[in-house]
Write a structure and sequence with these properties.
This protein is of the alpha+beta class. Helices cover about 40% and strands about 20% of the residues. The chain has three domains: about 60 residues, no CATH class; about 210 residues, 3-hydroxy-3-methylglutaryl-coenzyme A Reductase, Chain A, domain 2, CATH 3.90.770; about 90 residues, Alpha-Beta Plaits (2-Layer Sandwich), CATH 3.30.70.
Length: about 400
Amino acid sequence: MTGDVDHAAVVELAARVADGELRLHELENHADSDTAAAARRHRVENETGANCETIGSYGFPAETAEANIENMIGAVQIPVGVVGPVAINGGALSGERYLPLATTEGALLASVNRGCSVLTRSGGATVRVTKSGMTRAPVFRVDDVAEALALVEWVRDNERVLREAAEATTNHGELQGVTPYVVGNNVYLRFRFDTKDAMGMNMVTIATKAACDRVEAETTASLVALSGNLCTDKKPAAINAVEGRGRSVTADVVIDRDVVADALHTTPEAIAEINVRKNLIGSAKAGALGFNAHVANAVAAMFLATGQDEAQVVEGANAITTAEVTDDGDLYCSVSLASLEVGTVGGGTKLPTQSEALDILGVRGGGDPAGSNADALAEAIAVAALAGELSLLAALGSRHLSSAHESLGR
């Protein structure tokens, strides 16, 4: 948007920052968002010697990103491609769909696209959201374990009170339940909310704070931190693998033996063995929380394309891949993602390019019924992950992994 701003105003603002009259975060108070971004960019270029011309060549008004970033100087562009169309038999998403992925990893989309082709030849991937709920887990301090148990009992007896307090802060969120955990004189309350089509982290944080106020008002417990890390957000955690967070979703497919041979150049037996020895045993030996080949690739690429919180890839990749030979000699393969935190409203989904990517999937904005669009997005990501797992396992089975990268020049 460099050509849309007054250069003189940019220079003046940058000079006022250099003189200490203004701080970088105050520039929107003195100019429109694009001029403020250009002035910051000008200041950074002068101080560092960097040329930020390309960073400043973004294709949307800077004001549309005000809720997503502070001290904006421009935008980083990541190539976006599509795979498919892939046949999907979902609970919220059905038919043939193109899947948008943003990445800088060469050969990734080619690999996922091969998996999509196999899924479509096999009648499509079946996929369902099996559990849904965004969590926040505050930690309270009590005097001793007796007081801790008293708090646990109070919470169990007063869940209606907590629900009323929490839901008064939101038009859409619904408290599903509260699970207490006691560690010495610490009590963690893991709140779980239905956040409909929003990823909902901010929603549940605000709602949980209101519930915590009631806990403090009516018990002897003291709130130490609104997040006690038992949520668990943006960190690998076994509790998310077991209990789920956001959306838990599974995609699976049965692939005819002949299709495995023709399209994947290997056998069902080879893929099943590699999955056990690599994804299951190898991951267990490594102490991994995810038991898969590269689910993070599909999750990260679709997160970036559709405006999701990229830091939550660490949880979204918490997945288990299974593969086995059926009684008929065909290949059954599945991917189960335990904690996929996605939304189609709010956050980065409102940015222009990310909105367009959601339009490609047909899931932009709120769904009817509420929550159905976010379910559909979760299903699409799971299908992309399944396609990626199939293709990589097959490449390992046929020993084509390195040659595929070489042939694509990556």
